[in-house]
Amino acid sequence: MADQGVVLGSPGAIALEEIEVGAPGPAEVLVRIEATGVCHSDLHVIQEDGWGHAYPVLLGHEGAGTVEAVGEDVGDLAAGDRVVLGWKTACGVCATCLRGAPRQCKRPPAAAGRLLRRDGSVLTPVLRTGTFATHTVVPRVAAVQVPRELPVEQACLIGCAVATGVMSVLETARVWTGARVAVIGCGAVGLSAIQGARIAGAAEIRAIDLDERKLEQATRFGATHTEPGPVDFVFDVVGRRSTVEQGLGLLSSGGTFVLIGLSPGGETVEIDLPRLFQKRTTILVSHGGDHLPQEDFPKLAQWALDGTLDLASMVTETAPLAGWSDALEAMKGGDVIRTVLLP
Ligand SMILES: [Zn+2]
Ligand SMILES: [Zn+2]
After folding, report:
1. Cα-flanking dihedrals φ and ψ of residue 206, to 5°?
2. pLDDT reported for residue 322
3. 193 C-alpha vs ligand 2 centroid, how far in Å?
4. Which whole number is the average pLDDT over 199-212?
5. Statement: residue 74 has pLDDT above 80
6. Measured in angstroms, how far is the CA atom of residue 39 from the centroid of ligand 2?
7. If you measure from the C-alpha of residue 90 to the centroid of ligand 1, how many angstroms do you get, rounded to a whole number?
C-alpha cells in the first residue's frame, strides 16, 4: 500500500495524501510509525504560517514505531527495534555541543529530502520528524530504542509532551524535594509537569486551569491543590500575558518562573522590575524541557513501565490517521488529554 501522510500544503490547506518515502541515507533510519500523539505544536505550525517550516509541511512530531531499515553507518539499531522519535537532538559538533551543553544545541540534524509529495516536491517534516504518516525517515540520533513492553500508544507521548513536561521540572528548573510548585495549563504537557513535580518530591503541586475538567484530571496525576497560592516554582505551559502575570504574582521570594508554552507571535508582557529585583525572581525558558532524547527517553520509558509515570491515563482516545482533523478539533476544545493516531 502506498504511504500516506497529513500534509499542510499551503496556509490552511491540510489533507491526508499519498506521499513517497525514500530509503534512509547514511546515519539515517526508516521508521514505520505505529502511534503519534496530536500535540499543540502541530496546531501552532498550522496557525503560525508554518512556524518556520517551508511548505509543503508533513505534520506530526510525537511518534513511535518500528525501525524497518537503517542506512550506512548505523550499527546500533536494526530492523524490528521499537523506537520513539525525538525532535530535540544535538548535532555534536557546534560550539554549544563542544562546550558540553548538547541540551542547548540549536542545530539538530535532519534527514533532508527523503519525504516527497506525489508531485515530487520535497516535504518538510515538522520538527524534523513528520509523524502523521505511515513511514518517515529521521537521523539515527532521533530514533531512540525503548522496550517493546511499553504499549506504543503510550510510548509516543514520551517524544514530546512527556519529555517536555517532566524534564522542565527535573532538568530546566531542578525542582527540589519539598518545593511548592504551580503548573498553569493542565493539558498533556502540564500533566507531565505535574508528574515531574511528583517525581521530584514536591510538597505542594498546584494545578491552575480555566477548565474544571482539567483540574479534576490534574489531581489524579499528583496535583495536591486546584487553586492558586504562593509557590517556589511556576511552570507556565500556556505562555500568554495573563498567565505570565499570574505566575510571577504567585512566586515567593527567590522563586523561579519557567516559560514552557509557545506564545502567539507578537505576545508581550510588562514586568515590574523593582518588584522582580526585590523578590530575586529567576525567569527561565524551557525549550522542550531541555531534554536530550538519547539520554532521557530510556529513563522515561522505564518510569512508565515501573509505574512511576502514568502514561496510560494520558491517552484519552486512539484513532486512525484519517481521524487527524477531529483530533485537532478535540484538542482545541480541551476535550481530550491526548488523542493518539495509529497510522
Ligand atoms: Zn550542536
Ligand atoms: Zn509537541
Report:
1. -100, 120
2. 97
3. 14
4. 97
5. yes
6. 5
7. 5
3-state SS assignment for residue 158: helix
CA pair distance 16, 38, nearest whole angstrom: 15
pLDDT at residue 1, rounded to an integer: 76
C-alpha cell at 202: 514536591
- Distance, CA 188 to ligand 2 centroid (Å)? 10
Question: Which ligand has the nearest atom to the CA of 90?
Answer: 1
For residues 141 and 109, what is the distance between their CA atoms, to the nearest angstrom?
Answer: 8
Strand ranges for the chain from DSSP E: 3-10, 13-21, 28-37, 57-58, 63-70, 82-85, 115-117, 124-125, 135-139, 143-145, 180-184, 204-208, 231-236, 251-259, 282-285, 317-320, 339-342
Share of the chain above pLDDT 90, in %: 97
Ligand nearest to the CA of 141: 1
Alpha-carbon separation of residue 130 from 67, 104, 193, 201 (angstroms): 15, 22, 25, 35
DSSP-based three-state secondary structure for 130: coil
What is the distance in A from the centroid of ligand 1 to the CA of 29? 20
pLDDT at 174 over 90: yes
- Using CA atoms, how far apart are residues 253 and 56, in angstroms rounded to an integer? 48
DSSP 133: B
Contact 136/255 with Cβ under 8 angstroms?
A: no
Give the Å distance between the CA of 287 and the centre of ligand 1.
Answer: 14
211/223 Cα distance (integer angstroms)? 15
Cα of 110 from ligand 1 centre, angstroms: 12
User: If we measure between CA atoms, which residue out of 171, 217, 227, 213 comes closest to residue 191?
Assistant: 217
Question: What count of other Cβ atoms lies within 10 Å of the Cβ of residue 293?
Answer: 25
pTM metric for this prediction: 0.97
Cα 237 to ligand 2 centre (Å): 12
pLDDT digits (tens, 9 = 90+) for 235-245: 999 999 999 99
- 76 C-alpha vs ligand 1 centroid, how far in Å? 21
